[in-house]
Write a structure and sequence with these properties.
There is one protein chain. This protein is an alpha/beta fold. The chain folds into two domains: 3-241, Zn peptidases (Aminopeptidase, 3-Layer(aba) Sandwich), CATH 3.40.630.10; 251-324, OB fold (Dihydrolipoamide Acetyltransferase, E2P), CATH 2.40.50. The protein has helices at residues 7-21, 54-65, 68-71, 84-95, 126-138, 182-185, 213-229; strands at residues 23-24, 27-28, 30-34, 41-46, 76-81, 143-150, 157-160, 177-180, 201-209, 243-253, 260-262, 271-272, 277-281, 288-289, 294-297, 314-317, 321-324. Strands 3, 4, 5, 6, 7, 8, 9, 10, 12, 15, 16 and 17 form a twelve-stranded mixed beta sheet that branches. It has a three-stranded antiparallel beta sheet with strand order 11-13-14, with no helix packed on it. A two-stranded antiparallel ribbon has the order 1-2. Helix 1 (7-21) crosses helix 2 (54-65) and helix 2 (54-65) packs across helix 7. The longest helix has 17 residues, at 213-229. The protein binds zinc ion. Zinc ion binds at residues 48-49, 52, 111, 148. The site of zinc ion has 5 residues, from loops.
């Protein structure tokens, strides 16, 4: 079924249009649901990348199926479309039947924000301005979850800030894979690093492949469990995960020149040896080698001019370890 005409697509677009028309303290794309009972402030953020609508599937489910405006038990819930501009582009391209991958962002990747984005008013690129607009709201989050999806059909993941994520907040997520420490290794700053104060618990999820029903289902189950774990929704998830496969990111592959390509189509979680040649340059630049024995996480399948330069082509994790809860 083609995304542009599926029932899901219609509902997600409707949800986007509704969210876009909402504003909170003058900031558009934000819906504030206040239970009227004291409790934590939770932020759920969708479309940090415009072509990743799984977060909108969460909003549709909470609003239309769960009547969250009347069923939230305590605290305040913010539903936020982070990158309204890129999501607009995504829905326009979808309606025209065109390739939506270019709708990842308008000017800059909102998950690779410059370190000075909060203070540099001279940076007028769309995502930089949107970040400064949303910052006061993001800062209020006690708990935050940023929702993503992937180009490849890979297992869903929890992405933790550093390696200190409180996994009790992830109780009931249909996710067994934990990617930690990526924010300390990646280029620039991911958006969730701006959420909350020092004691806030924030994470991102990679829910599945873009525009796939399974990604929507995974994302929605995670969101419900997250709210239940924060005692803001009744009930508990039936999913019980007691062991996580943790991948502690300690390196990445970045190509300095477009002439580089991986030597093979590396698979997700492919093990590499220290010193193994990962990529070569067609103009004779030095080989890119694995810096340590580890595991490739999210290796790009793009080659030649299709590669997104200025972003990691892969992350490299230390050997997988099991974390029990
Ligand atoms: Zn993303």
């Amino acid at each position: 079924m083609k995304f542009s005409t599926s029932t899901h697509a219609v509902r997600i677009r409707r949800t986007f249009e509704m969210l876009k028309s909402q504003s909170y303290e003058g900031v558009s794309g934000v819906l504030c649901i206040d239970s009227g009972v004291s409790g934590p402030v939770v932020g759920m953020t969708a479309c940090t990348h415009g072509n990743e609508p799984a977060g909108l599937a969460i909003f549709a489910h909470l609003l239309e199926d769960m009547d969250i405006c009347n069923t939230l038990l305590r605290g305040t819930l913010f539903l936020v479309v982070n990158n309204v501009g890129a999501a607009n582009l995504f829905f326009d391209l979808t309606a025209q039947g065109k390739d939506t991958s270019v709708a990842r962002y308008v000017d800059i990747n909102m998950n690779r924000l410059p370190k000075d984005v909060c203070t540099n008013d001279a940076d007028t690129r769309y995502e930089a301005c949107r970040t400064r607009e949303l910052l006061p709201l993001w800062k209020r989050f006690d708990y935050g979850m940023d929702v993503h999806s992937t180009t490849m059909d890979i297992e869903p993941m929890i992405i933790s800030k550093g390696d200190s994520y409180a996994l009790e907040l992830a109780r009931g997520f249909p996710v067994r894979k934990l990617v930690s420490h990526i924010d300390r290794v990646q280029l620039n700053t991911p958006v969730f690093a701006f959420y909350g104060g020092t004691h806030a618990q924030v994470c991102a999820i990679e829910a599945g492949q873009h525009e796939k029903d399974t990604a929507y289902v995974n994302a929605t189950m995670c969101a419900k469990a997250f709210l239940q774990n924060a005692h803001m929704l009744s009930g508990t998830s039936h999913t019980q995960i007691t062991e996580y496969r943790e991948f502690f990111i300690d390196g990445s592959v970045v190509f300095d020149d477009v002439s580089y390509d991986f030597v093979t189509l590396f698979q997700e979680e492919e093990c590499v040896r220290e010193g193994q040649v990962l990529a070569t340059s067609s103009i004779g630049l030095p080989d890119v080698r694995a810096p340590f024995e580890g595991v490739l996480i999210m290796p790009s399948t793009k080659r030649g001019s299709e590669k997104i330069m200025g972003e990691e082509q892969s992350f490299i994790s230390r050997p997988m370890r099991v974390r029990r809860v």
